[in-house]
Each structure stands twice: as structure tokens, then as C-alpha cells.
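WARN retry 2 of 3 for item q-0093 after timeout on previous attempt; input resubmitted unchanged.
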Amino acid sequence: MGQTILITGANRGIGLALTAELLKGGHRVLAGTRNPAKAADLEKLRAEHGESLEVLELDVTSQESATAAAARAGTLTAGVDVLVNNAAVFPEEGDESIFDMKLEHFREAFETNVIGVIRVTREFVPLLEKGKDPRIVNISSGAASVTAKDDYGYYAYAASKAALNMVTRGLAAEFRPRGICVVAMTPGWVKTEMGGPDAPLKPEESARAIARTITSLTMEKTSLFLERTGGEVKYGW
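OK item q-0093 returned
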């Protein structure tokens, strides 16, 4: 019997590739997306895998949507084994000076990449507590590393992912007594709409490694910042 895994932002990029990889591995996926009617690739996967894939309407920036998604998930499964907080935005160009950055970019990045993760996590903890070896995987980025920061690129995105790492550490401490493993994970530089065409990794390559890692995570790794292959990042937090 496979695991039940909820993925936010599952309609494209890494989220879509991870959904496909987990389905191939015999797992059940609850695929969260803001607009299921426009998620044609998810519908193709559903046609192929049937009830192993459930598409959930889930906008991580909306409390109403997150609450409704958790309620619907509760009618579809007795528990969730893994929550993958993957939905994210990259609002800026990436090379702006702080004097050229729109402050709205920071608001957008934090609303989805940080507050959205907190919002979804709070709604789905009750289902996680009914799952087997429950795990929360927050998809972060190497750009989040304060230790390795030596340029001024990606101000809003990098700051939001650094904040996500801090939230991850807090969640790991709070949820340890509940037996919920919480990690931050970098998927690598991936050729997606966000990662751009110069990235060395295809989404499928990153997804294969992520799938192996998240389905075998144990409490021994809770609170860590991990590579997609499961080892700790070498450049530090």
C-alpha cells in the first residue's frame, strides 16, 4: 500500500513532475491547484491513474480555500502521510537593485511562500496526525541560505525562502512531540517557469530524487535543511 501525499502547486513544474513520479511509485496523491478547471496536465494523469489522484482546489493565499480543501481531503482519505508545501511565486526579475525593487514583490513572495505554507499546514495537521509517520516537507531553495549569500539577487524570493526555513525550524520543534517530521528541502536548480531555461535539472530528474527522499523520511531528520537526495545542504542555512 502506497502513501497518501498532498502537494500544493501541483499543476506545473516540480509539483506536477512530483505528482507523476509518486503516482508511478504506487502512491496516492492529493494534488492542490488554484484552478482545477485549467489543470489539463493533472486531468491527463487522473485519466491514467484513476482514483490514485485527486485534484483539490487549493489557493494557498486564501484561508477560505485552504479550509475547504482540508474539509474535502477529509472526505477522501482517513489521513495524510506527507504534506509537500510546494506552491511558490518568484515575483521579481531577480537582478534588481534594492532601489528598483517594488515593495509589492516582497508582499507577494511572503504571502505565498511563507504565510501560505503556515495557512495550509495549520489546516492539514489534523489529517497528518491520522497518517502514518507524518511528514511536512517545505520546498525551499539554495537562495534561502544566509550563510552563502554574497550577491544582491532575488531579494524578495530569497528573503521569503529564508523566512520559510525559519518557520520550518519552529514547526519542527513544535511538532516533534506529535511525532511529525518537518524539513526544508531544496529541489536544486530546475528548468521550470520559475527556474528558467538555463537550469541544469529537468523537473523529472529533481522529482525522482525528491520522491525517494520524502517517502522514506524519518524523525531523525526533522528540523534539517535537506538536498533533494536527502543529505543536509553543505552551504548552510
